[in-house]
Design a protein that fits this description.
The complex is a heterodimer of chains A (78) and B (160).
Chain A lengths: L2 H13 L19 H15 L5 H6 L3 H9 L6
Chain B lengths: L1 E3 L2 E4 L1 H7 L11 E6 L3 E7 L19 H12 L1 H4 L10 E10 L8 E12 L2 E10 L2 E11 L1 H4 L9
Antiparallel strand pairs in B: 1-2, 2-3, 3-4, 4-6, 5-8, 6-7, 7-8
Classes of the chains: A mainly alpha (78), B alpha+beta (160).
Chain lengths: 78, 160
């Protein structure tokens, strides 16, 4: 599975969304991406990419698109 | 609170110093054994003087299910509120799963609660607790509980 697929899957499985709903998705756009859902998403991403994100990156992770930029800091290219 | 090896003991005052539940909603009397960050064993004694017995029920007093859940979770939160830096903080329920009630508990009985912390990350505690009376299984539940003093630090600013 490619990094793109892993990244998308973290979102679709955590929030129960389809891939077609991800491109413009932002924090709190859907009820599932609330504060608790956010922690679940961070945990899913850390597990799948075997990384541990800093607190500043977790609070800055505000959208599907911006998350890709954050993951580059951890040498994960999506 | 007292210490024996890596295990801690909390009397009622020690519990009050560690968590924020108060009468009439404090439902654990002692933590007989806590391994901070791992597990806790609690004791809850029930007498007819409990405020809920006359109402549940007048002809057949027994402990209501929501009280049993509180007994379980109040022991469970001591698995992480026994960690020195988190003592005295408030907690919030995020989820309860796999709840089972299998034994009626009546005045004069004591429930022993065993709780285990499976995960504690970014202020979210996930684990389980089980209650027994005289060695007989009474109830259990899986819990997800937040510790807002930690959890809130990881929450992104509101986007709307």
């Amino acid at each position: 599975m490619s990094n793109v697929e892993k990244y998308q899957q973290a979102f679709t499985e955590t929030f129960g969304l389809g891939e077609d709903q991800l491109a413009d998705l932002k924090y709190q756009d859907v009820p599932e991406w609330d504060s608790v859902g956010h922690m679940n998403l961070m945990g899913a991403l850390e597990d799948v990419f075997d990384i541990e994100m800093d607190i500043d990156d977790i609070t800055d992770f505000s959208s599907f698109e911006h998350g890709k930029t954050i993951l580059k800091k951890y040498n994960v290219n999506v | 609170m007292s210490e024996s090896g890596d295990k801690l003991f909390f009397d009622t005052i020690g519990i009050l110093e560690s968590q924020r539940n108060r009468y009439p909603l404090l439902f654990v009397d002692q933590i007989t054994e806590a391994v901070p960050g791992k597990s806790a064993v609690g004791i809850k004694n029930f007498t007819y003087n409990e405020w809920f017995f006359p109402a549940h029920y007048d002809d057949e007093p027994n402990v209501p299910g929501f009280v049993l859940i509180e007994c379980l979770v109040q022991t469970f939160i001591m698995t992480f509120l026994s960690i020195e830096e988190y003592r005295g903080n408030k907690t919030n329920f995020l989820g309860i799963d796999n709840v089972k009630f299998r034994r009626k508990i009546v005045p004069g009985e004591t429930m022993k609660i065993s709780a285990n912390l499976k995960s504690f990350k970014r202020g979210i505690a996930i684990g389980t607790a089980e209650g027994e009376v005289d060695g007989e299984f009474a109830c259990c539940a899986d819990f997800t509980v937040s510790l807002p003093v930690v959890f809130d630090k990881f929450v992104p600013p509101k986007s709307k």
